[in-house]
Amino acid sequence: MESEKWEICSSDGDLCTEDLKDEEDAFYPLSGSISKLQFRKASSRACWNSEVGMAEVVERKGQIWTTTGVLRGGKLYCSIEETLFLAEIGALVLVDENGTGLSLEGIYGKLAEEKNGCCWEHYEVYKHLKSLGYIVGRRGVPWTLKSVGTDALTEDRFITDRLSKLDLNGLEPAFDVYLPNGKFKKSSPGDPSYVLCLTRESPPSRKDVEVLERQSGHIPVKFCHVENGRVSFFSFSKVDLPVLP
């Protein structure tokens, strides 16, 4: 008779680096230096839409939009995590609905509200993956839709909220992650390389892992945990144990 053992593959080599200090120094503004953000000469511009909790890009510059933002009715929108990441690296200037420029402090405030389908832990994971070149989108949110108006964006928010409230002991299916790909197209992205779930406290139970795997179908599921600014990745696999005589 065969039995099964769940093996934890800690610190996934495809995702983790031994030391994130260089990344943190490069991308995280230090306290007291936020106001010193330097924008690129070719920064894009976006206007925050409080109704849908996203920023509408009104001026696109550079190639970043090939793998960033979702298209809805011919308009390009980016989530709070995409908005903050681009603002931190100086690639996006954000204004509010009155046309007033928003500082990084203002964007951090929007993230802290946790009303836009994202929290600080989600953002740290998103930034880590984007810094490594991965293509990252919110789980279950299509890259493109032809629907016009805010209905499609409202549906995006509904999907995000629904996924974040799944009763899986704190597990959150957060992102669809694609390997770096210079030929990536939003109109035909294909299946993600894996679904990434965030753990809050203890590692997931075998039952929860099996539920997530059934939901994701043939797409692999990986997990990540954020603690003290460090992002760790792990996954599970089944192994057959030999039958003892």
UniProtKB/TrEMBL annotation:
Superkingdom as given in the UniProt entry: Eukaryota
Acetylation is among the record's keywords: no
Domain tRNA-splicing endonuclease subunit Sen54 N-terminal stretches: 34-94
Pfam families associated with the record: tRNA_int_end_N2
GO cellular component: tRNA-intron endonuclease complex
Gene Ontology biological process: tRNA-type intron splice site recognition and cleavage
Keywords: tRNA processing
Protein family per UniProt: Belongs to the SEN54 family.
PANTHER family: TRNA-SPLICING ENDONUCLEASE SUBUNIT SEN54 (PTHR21027)
Protein name per UniProt: tRNA-splicing endonuclease subunit Sen54 N-terminal domain-containing protein
Native source species: Trapa incisa
